[in-house]
Amino acid sequence: DRSVQRKRERTTIMKDILQLARYYENVGITKIIYKCNLNYISAKKLLEDMIERDLIEMVESESSRKNYKITDNGENLLKKILSLRELGGDY
């Protein structure tokens, strides 16, 4: 089913973004686009959705650039996704 596959891909992308935000502490949209193989519009929509769900938060750097950082809720979700992968899930 195509909708199930699309949701799985979205979960994988969200996991990748959360991992980037955790690793870099503050990650910019350009790095997210490059590392997750997204276009700007897709990345922006996904980031807005993740902000609404309190998985990441936007922080402004000294140069007024917008960066993204993982929240406690994002950290908890990432741990759950990674533990599912260890059990053999395809996320």
Secondary structure layout:
Blueprint lengths: L1 H23 L2 E2 H8 L3 H13 L3 E5 L5 E5 L1 H15 L5
Antiparallel strand pairs: 1-3, 2-3
Q: How would you describe the overall organization of this protein?
A:
It is globular and about 40 Å long. The mean pLDDT is 87. α1 (2-24) packs across α4 (72-86). β2 (56-60) and β3 form a beta hairpin. It has helices at residues 2-24, 29-36, 40-52, 72-86; strands spanning 27-28, 56-60, 66-70. With 91 residues, the protein is of the alpha+beta class. The protein has a 3-stranded antiparallel β-sheet with strand order 1-3-2. Helix content is 65%, strand content 13%.
Radius of gyration: 13 Å
Based on DSSP secondary structure assignment, what is the total number of beta strands?
A: 3
- Binned, the helix content reads 55-70%
Please tell me the overall pLDDT: 87
Oligomeric assembly: single chain
Task: List low-confidence stretches.
Answer: none
Number of helices: 4
- Strand content bin: 5-15%
Terminal CA distance: 16 Å
The largest beta-sheet arranges its strands as 1-3-2
Largest sheet: 3 strands, antiparallel
- Label the structural class: alpha+beta
Order of helices and strands: HEHHEEH
Estimate the global geometry from the Cα principal axes: globular
